[in-house]
Amino acid sequence: MRPGGPAVGPAAEVALAAAPSAASTAPWPVAGEGPALYPGLGACAIPPRYPDAVQLAEIAAERLADGSPPESPEPLYLRRPDARIPGKPKRVTP
Predict the structure, then answer these.
(1) Angle at the Cα of 3 (from 55 to 6), degrees rounded to 5?
(2) Is the pLDDT of residue 26 over 90?
(3) I need a surface site. Which of 7, 14, 38, 88 has the fewest CB within 10 A?
(4) Is residue 55 helix, strand or coil?
(5) Contact assessment for residue 20 and residue 26, using Cβ atoms and an 8 Å cutoff
(6) 15 near 42, Cβ under 8 Å?
(7) Would you say the pTM of this structure is higher than 0.85?
């Protein structure tokens, strides 16, 4: 279970926010490239590093076989859009 929503930020800030409590000495699990790019942050790499369509289909098939209702696909954007609504025009003086 994820404690919060996905976020983007500098590696050091992510490590501080996601680090286990002082009582726990186990490394925290991280998927993707993070553990390989930042080995000193104390993360534990969890597989698959690069999931492919077959692995995703297997996960979906397991959920369907377990009787879990299918979820609707929903895009997840981790950066702000480049496009913006135009503001007031700038005043031009002759």
Answers:
(1) 60
(2) no
(3) 88
(4) helix
(5) yes
(6) yes
(7) no
